Amino acid sequence: MSPKRDAADPVEGVGNPMPLNDNKSDPLRRRSWSPWAAGAALGVLSWFAFATEGRGLGITTAFESTAALVERALVPEFARSTGYFTDHDPKIGWEWVLVLGVFLGSVVSARLSGDHRRLVVPSVWRARFGGSVAGRLAAAFLGGALMMFGARLAMGCTSGHGITGALQLAVSSWVFIVLAFAVAVATAFVLFGGKAYDTRRSFVESEVPRV
57 burial class (0-12, 13-18, 19+ CB within 10 angstroms)? Predict the structure, then answer.
């Protein structure tokens, strides 16, 4: 087992310009929560979504609806010919509040805990593909686009399937979760080989909370 890393020491290739806080008495300042507590909180949030909106949590639906509205505004004739609007009535709804909440909540959490890293090109990426910032950002954009396409093709993402579908014991959602994790691991090894594991091993071992 690797020796425990001091919270103030920077991790190779990560960088950590802000002092880290791990105030266990203040949950808002903790670097991580127990997975049991986080899971219970997501369950309560899902109950609230079902009770108020009649459907569960979902992130990518907001992007789909927005894209459909833009398409209908720019090329209305083409939009009508696709048949999408026959079965769907896209609108800007509460899902965008969820999207913004995830982003803003992450920023606030990182600031409160001090776990904010200004990093564009990780060392693992640099060792494999070089230090080009533009290349890194382009790859990140392409990866995000592929994930969005896959999520809409599967009619759900890690929130729609991984949370909403899984808590309803939907078979399709559990299949999605297993395949998503399997493909993610396989993709990481195809892109980086053992470099990602070797570079991050000591950091991961020291940061995983003991429950």
Answer: buried
